[in-house]
# Entry
Amino acid sequence: MKLKSKYYLAWAKDEKIRKKGANGGFVTATLVSALENDFIDAALVFEKKSVYEGIPVLTSDPEVVKKCAGSLHGVPINLTRFVVEYAAKKRIGLPTKPCDARGIIEQAKRRQVNLDNIFMIGLNCGGTLHPLRMREMAAVFYGLDPDSVVREEIKEGKIFLISEEEGGEEKEKWMKIDELEQKGYGRRDACKSCTVKIPTMADLACGNWGVPQGEEKTFVEVCSEKGGAIFENAMESGYVEAEEAPGKGIEARKKIEAGMQKLAASWKERMDEVSTLSRSERFEFYVDELKNCIHCGACKAVCPVCACEDDSKCLDMNDERDSYAISMYNVLRIFHLMDSCIHCGQCEDVCPVDIPLTLIQRRFSERMQRHLGYVPGMDITEKPPLYETELRWSARVE
Amino acid sequence: MEMETKSSICPGCSIGCGLYLLQAEEGEERKIKILHRPTSPMNEGKLCKFGTDLHMYYEREVLNNSVEGGEVKQEEAIREAKERLKGFKPDELAFIALPSTITNEEILSFVSLASEFGCENVSFGFERFFREIPEEASYIIERGLPFSEVEKATKIILFFLDPFVHYPLLARRILKAKKNGARVIEVSFAKNERKIADEVVLVEPMEIERIKEKKEMFADSLIIGELTPYTDSQFLALMLWLTASTSSRLFLFKPFLNSTGAILFGKGSGRGDLSEIIEGIERGEIKALYSLETDIAGAMLGGEEVAETISKLDLLIEQNAFRTPLSDVANITICSEPFFMKKGTIVNIEGRLLDIGGESEKGLQAMESMGKGRTYEEVHEEVKRKLGLAEISEFEIAVKREEKSFEMAEPKAEIEEIKGEEGYFLRYKTNPFFWNGIQSKNFVEISPAAMRKLGLFRGDEVEVVQGERKERMGFKISELPDYLILSEAKMSIKPLYVAEPHRMEMLTRVELRRAKR
# Structure
């Protein structure tokens, strides 16, 4: 079957996958089909431990993939570094949030992965939540025992928590995201201000925006030839069923995206406390925050766009014996990432002394990227304008 | 290549940070990667440098089973160990384990093994403190506090402890407390370069006890200090006296991951103490030592002397996952599994009972096969029974602490005047790398005055000298008193309070010279 359109409503044919997976189980069914039909060697998925925890698993077993079905908004882990470390030379398929896909594309530009071998099944993303804040949120605002929450869902501007009561009965409670976020809960700061909501840079972009209410289907945008091939294969081999998306649905999806982008832009403005400061106050702010750095290197270790490894300038040019107010490590990282930072917030998530790294990095990189007309991680053919993209000394792939 | 991901615990310090450990094997190649685990309530997805670099700790050379240097099967090493241990009188035996990588189950097994041989010289590093303080105060040594108590505190006193260095994952809790309005006071020899405190009370090195004059400052505070096998008795007494006489609370951090578990499950198991055991070996009274995952010479300052003492033993048995200088001289080595592979639990400094996440019982079974022969499940049930728990949850504080009032005699130490001309004093700033035998720093911190006095330039090196001991190091200029040298690196220089205990001193006199260029 040849695809005639760019937009589809699709779902898993297998009832179990349809039930377990989000929005009709299309993503899981497509990955299983890709594995069964030798499109990929392995799938990189999250094994669900609880509603707050998913562990990344690289597997060639379709049964494991089936077990990993379902959404996990409380898992804010970026998968880029896994792909680089474990799958650089393999053909893999994985679900990607926009920031995962953008990280992988930036790594491909730096010759750390070969994009031809990676099937990115993009997931529309309104944002992820920190799992521990989510637990607190369940207890404080939803009045639930955090451990009783078995599922979560984000739709129509609300966070739904579904708990299992004694006797196995399920109860659904929801709160408006905006209300939660005003109280300091809800999505991570990086997600609140992220304007890339639909991962069109991936091979397929999937989600529930544009799906008629009450229908358990996935709205799929085919974004690349590869994406088309994997989708077609899933249909031909009987894993997936699909119908062309109605015009109304396409419009609704666009509208939701635009609304979320607008909200993100307003969050960005609200959170940008640095730009309102005078130059000397800004310097004071940077010193005050960055002086706490303990040089653990965690921000570099998790950064989805950094490909320098042990030869990096931030490490080479830093000497802990120097007594600068801000270490060279931090200064070099800020400057080196100015053109390529995707503002995913991974660095801030892992910083042991809670330095607001996303905010600081954004202050420098956003203006630079605007000036250079470069949006990192969106297009493999666009090279980062400022810094080396070849990195031949550390290339993992040709 | 399949990738296996495990939930695990960092063995770097007593906080017990949660993390993921990824293993992938392709042909001969085995990769370990550490990943942050955001769900972990101890560290909320953060790790210090030790945790971030933990793969290096696990990539060390593994230990083989051996008898007198010859590789043997594990059963043979165990059989030989048991036979040889039987050849000693109970008083001639000692069992030591600094509990960095040792589970609660292994602690129970270790204690039980020692008792099978009638041995009472069992040490986990903290025994002597219980003999030196009033019993009513022992809960402070035994139990820590949840981090939520740090975040809620209104006044925090950092008592000779730099959280950024000693326990990096504590630092953010103090920063959070500050954001919540807490006042942070630092009692120290030198100002912290990160300026975490609202107020710094500088104390002269030989006059620590003069802090008693500022007793009022401690009222209703949370005092955060550190307890290590090196802590001077008088120094501990001072912390407890300040606590008892000012209705404050004292939170003592400890360097070893399962310090709390070792104290809870090892307490009362014997009359041993680390320093007494070493002295016993030195005097020739202790002739056989079973060391559980403890490179005693590598972990202790002045390790060369300890190594020399150890060589006087008739029998040294080292059970470990990795090769260490101690295992190189052991008569018998018994191979256990790396910490992340272990099936078992630990208790972190907050009192959380944590599952390590592994599946191997190798180390435990090695001991059980010499002792009572119990299954893992039996020993694990005993852990839960002793803690009064049915289930394990990392989100619960299993070992809670109840504050009690106690009386403490006012500690007194001789105050020695320091005269400017008397030279330099060295203070170690211990950190997770320090205790785990991995060197992470190659420099010492000195004052601008010392730099000028020695005529040092950028790129020069210094020599820190104590009698015959000499260490060549880089240097960093910090805002310190003229005479003070700080070191995060482990050197052969032995602190005075180890050489001459009970003086409350935390510094040692050294010479500082410019090294030849």
In short: The radius of gyration of chain B is 23 Å.
